[in-house]
Design a protein that fits this description.
Helices cover 73% and strands 0% of the residues. By secondary structure, the chain is mostly helical.
């Protein structure tokens, strides 16, 4: 494995994902409340045990602390996604594992959110979390898709489920 390439791509993908969510919540906060409400609320909950969104005080410490945790999490997720993309260039079926892994990660994220931040869920609408996560996933996926032209070629030649040595017909069936 080309570890340097994976880390470089993971860094970029992670920055794209973290940036997409940060920008999304900046817009949501500007429209709904005040700028930086969400990272301040989550930072206060994470570091100081805040349980009531009505008691949120926008602070640079809470925003910076939460942003650092958020960024580190996305750098890890980006590195894992880059490793999957790297492996999928050689074995396109790995994309299936990546899709299942993504679904499991999202499910786990919502479980952690419900357990950890349940008192704050009234201030953090499920749809806004879903939209933010979708924006991050699309941005990261697009970056990795563009960074791996060989993967695109492999999937064009051998759609998922098609055997490598047996050509599929026009609708994807393998002759018997």
């Amino acid at each position: 494995m080309d570890v340097k390439r994976i880390l470089r791509e993971g860094l970029m993908a992670g920055l794209i994902g973290a940036g997409a969510i940060a920008l999304w919540y900046l817009v949501v906060d500007i429209i709904a409340r005040e700028p930086f409400f969400t990272p301040s609320m989550l930072g206060s909950a994470l570091f100081w045990g805040l349980k009531d969104p009505a008691q949120v005080v926008i602070s640079a410490q809470a925003v910076a602390g939460y942003t650092l945790v958020h960024l580190m999490t996305f750098l890890i997720v980006g590195a894992v996604a880059a490793a999957f993309a790297h492996q999928a260039e050689r074995i396109p079926a790995v994309l299936f594992l990546a899709a299942v892994g993504f679904a499991a990660f999202e499910f786990g994220f919502y479980i952690v959110l419900v357990v950890w931040a349940q008192p704050l869920l009234g201030a953090l609408a499920w749809w806004s979390v879903a939209v933010g996560n979708a924006m991050a996933a699309v941005g990261m996926s697009y970056y990795l898709w563009r960074a791996h032209p060989r993967l695109r070629e492999q999937l064009a030649a051998h759609p998922l489920g098609a055997a490598v040595d047996e050509p599929a017909d026009s609708i994807g069936r393998i002759p018997q």
